[in-house]
Amino acid sequence: MNTTEYIESGILELYVYGLLTPEENKMVAEIAREHSDVRDEIVAIEKSMISFSGGFSPSLPSSKHDEIRSKIIGKPKDDRPVKTRTSYFGWAAALVFLLLAGYFYYELNLANMDYLAIENKQKEVDEISRIMQAQKMKSDSALAILRDRNNSIVDLAGQGPNVNATATIYINRESQLVYIDASRLPEPPKDMVYQVWGLQYEPFRPTSIGVLDSFSNNYSRLFLVETFGEAQGFAVTLEPSGGSQQPTMDRLFVMGAI
Each residue of 37-67: pLDDT tens digit? Predict the structure, then answer.
């Protein structure tokens, strides 16, 4: 066959893609040495294959294109003019190869993303489990305090406009620890805190025994406050963040006597 028929036979595409036998490769190389149009067509096929790699697999970095090209044709890039005429078989082979390369690269990225998503989800589950375990321990501790038969109970009733508010003081006669159950007090406004006072009546003298500054973060709303053995009663007021030296009586929420 003449060189035109030889070029259109598709054998040059197989040669570029490395799909011929060693004997066939040798034969193509010999013909290319003798015929410049065959050599030019080989260069054109190589250039077309590189052009396809940019069009059908845009997500691959340029280094990957060069790596794929070197593995297939084992030749550096050539800046000679590209012929536009190639056989259908060559275009189809380039398309299939590059689509497969892009597909596997895409699947690898998806697999990595799935792994990271699963890892992050496990961290979220572990954190939720830790929080729930901590809340359970606090609840168990609160129940143990409430059920202790050594407790003396002081009910604090709502005062003034806060008539619906209530709280309970638990004084353990054995350990002398004092707890307040503030679960029936409303959430304090921003930059304000509840402050607990031990009261003496004659003469009237309030003594601060605790600031409930972690109100929002306390799941059980059960707080340990300072022991005040001389207390004859207790009160809770709403104060600026950090507490006050003296109770603000117009923000008195609850009060009760022992």
Answer: 888 888 888 777 666 555 544 455 555 555 5
With contact defined as beta carbons under 8 Å apart, do 46 and 75 qualify? yes
> CA angle at residue 214 from 208 to 218, to 5 degrees?
120
Distance CA 86, CA 40 (A): 11
d(CA 148, CA 162): 29
Stated pTM of the model: 0.48
Number of H helices, E strands in the chain: 6, 8
Structure tokens at 189: 């406004």
Which residue shows structure tokens 């845009």?
58
Angle (deg, nearest 10), helices 88-147 and 62-73: 130
- CA-nearest of 195, 197, 209 to 233 is 197
